[in-house]
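Morning, I've got a small favour to ask if you have a moment. I've been staring at a protein lately and its backbone has me curious. You're getting the sequence in one-letter code plus the fold written as tokens. I've dropped the whole record in just underneath, so have a look:
=====
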Amino acid sequence: MSDNKAAPSIPRDKENDHTQTMAEQRQAFVKQYTQSELNHVGHYSLSPEQTAGNIENFIGVAQVPIGLAGPVKVNGEHAKGDFYVPLATTEGTLVASYNRGMRVLGAAGGVKVTVVDDVMQRAPVFIFEDARQAHAFGNWISAQFDDIKSQAETTTSVGKLRNIEQYAAARMLYLRFNFTTGDAAGQNMVGKATFAACEWIKANYPGAGLQRYNLSGAMDTDKKHSQLNTLHSRGKRVIAEATISSEILESKLGVSAQMLFKMRQISNMGSFMAGSINNGSHSANGITAMFIACGQDAANVAESSAALSFVDVDEQGNFYIAITLPSLIVATYGGGTALATQKECLEMMDCFGEGKAKKLAEIIGATVLAGELSLSAAVLAGDWVTSHDALGRNR
């Protein structure tokens, strides 16, 4: 193709694009214009029709290896018992490390996990002529909450508007709409509901000075971490905790409770100096691996991997460890959860479908705790590098 010709458009059928015929046309297009064969990308067991609503211009699949870790013993309110966890990753040692942490936690009686909050946001901003008008508008919003709630909930049978936070700056008022969303992650759900509410507000506000509104003023921090989410939560706020005797730690991990406690104090200082949003070890590893395996929106790892690690040693020398995930965004219904391999991975943990999102969140919390414990011990015991050398290199 000469340089003076426009690049061709990707083949697409506006009426019926999610078909095997269109997938094959695009595969042939790739071969013709990039000289690349899609022998593996183009080999899959699902039907292209199943991907409608999940992807555009479908050409195939990315096959990420899935390893099995467990069992992890979960003492949750929704997840109770032993679970085997699918982890999709290309990082050698990852599954082995989580597996080791799960064994230790099981020997200590398991992980107590609690979902303490569950909320999803959309945060519009309303712009006025001056700050006093914006302030008056905020008072009206508080007085009209019931009507605003009713309008928002006309768009959804699941989403419920819980409250509206207000943040004033200059001549703007930022409103953070907080919804519960059942077993869906809910970003699109709350976006539609908030739009309906904002249109009603625009049509009914009797005060002066309203110039316009934007559906998102960025205070929802969609797919971006924020301190606001750490404090107020986004998705599910999950706390996983366990108490482990020093004898178990020494026999299975080669470290003592005191060693782990002192290491956490040192790591806290390093995290503080680095300005880190996460004082734990590597929560993103387990969360990402489970997200990919289980059909979650992988970009939500940006928020979901935020973590607060805390440890203590009691008078008997037992080691207490807890991880708080303030913005874990998961779904067991909708999105990519019903795709072929993703559904199988969710079903492995009995986490597919309605009524299972908090159960999945608890299993993820327990998995993250296992990874925190295992990596911390590996760094202390000196087998962090050697394990990667043994398991993490392609030979």
